C-alpha cells in the first residue's frame, strides 16, 4: 500500500494508479498541502482524499498560482548573488510549470556547478538566511485541514521534526491541528532521526493522533531515504491505516512521496 502525495497537486494520481496496479500495489489518493502557521511553513498531507472535491481543487489551484510569484522572487534574490538565468533554468527542470518550486531551482544550481547536489544547494541558497530564500505565505493551516476533511480524507502533519520551532510552539501547533480536525502525525519519515521517532511517537499518544510513515521521497539521490527503506513504527503507535478496514487485510505500511 502506497500513497502518492505530490506538493499542492493531484495531477499524478491517475498515472500513479496505473503504475501501482501493474506492480500489485494499492494506491492511496493523497496530496501534500503547503500551509503557513505563525510564519512557519508546514506541509499537511491528505490521505484517502476525493480528487474531485471542488473545495480541495480550488484551494490547490490558488496555491499553485502563488508558486509562480514566489519563483520570480527567488530568481531575483539569486541574481543579487550573481546567479543569472535561474528562473528559466528552474522551469526547464519542472515537468509541470504550475508546480515550480525550490527543488527545480536546486537542480538548476547543481547543473551550473554551484553545489555538488540538491541537498547542498538547499543548505547554501534556499533556506532561511541564505541568498535565495524568500518568505512566502501559503494556505492557512485551518484551510488546508478543512479542504482535506471536506474531500473525505485524513489530515496528517508531515515531517514535524523539520520545523524550526520550540517545544512549546510544537505543543501549541499540535493542539491546534488536533482541534481543527487533524487526524495523524508522521512519526517515522526520511527526514527524522531515530531519536525523533520516539519523540513524535510520544506526541502522537499525547494528542490522540494516529501515526504515519512517510518516505519524503523526491527523486533518486535527492532524498534522505528511498521508498520502502524506513523502519516500522515504534511500539504503541496507532497506525493511520488501522482505520482503513476495507484496505488493510495483510497490509502493514504506508509511505508518502
Q: Your description of this structure?
A:
The chain is an alpha/beta fold and 257 residues long. It has 2 domains: 2-61 and 140-242, Metal-dependent hydrolases (TIM Barrel, Alpha-Beta Barrel), CATH 3.20.20; 65-126, DNA polymerase, domain 1. It contains 8 helices and 7 strands; from the N terminus they run E-H-E-E-H-H-H-H-E-H-E-H-E-H-E. It has helices at 13-22, 54-80, 86-92, 102-111, 118-126, 141-150, 167-180, 194-206, and strands at 2-4, 27-37, 40-47, 139-140, 154-157, 184-189, 210-214. Strands 1, 2, 3, 4, 5, 6 and 7 form a 7-stranded mixed beta sheet that branches.
Number of helices: 8
The helicity comes to: 25-40%
CATH fold-level topology of the largest domain:
TIM Barrel
Oligomer: single chain
Number of separate strands: 7
Largest sheet: 7 strands, mixed
The helix/strand series, from N terminus to C terminus, equals EHEEHHHHEHEHEHE
**Gap from first CA to last CA:** 13 Å
Q: From the helix content, strand content and strand pairing, which structural class follows?
A: alpha/beta
- The CATH superfamily of the largest domain turns out to be Metal-dependent hydrolases
Q: Using the alpha-carbon principal axes, give the shape.
A: globular
CATH architecture of the largest domain: Alpha-Beta Barrel
Supply the CATH class of the largest domain: Alpha Beta
Low-confidence stretches: 250-257
Chain-averaged pLDDT: 91
The radius of gyration over CA amounts to 18 Å
**Domains, number:** 2
- Beta content comes to 15-25%
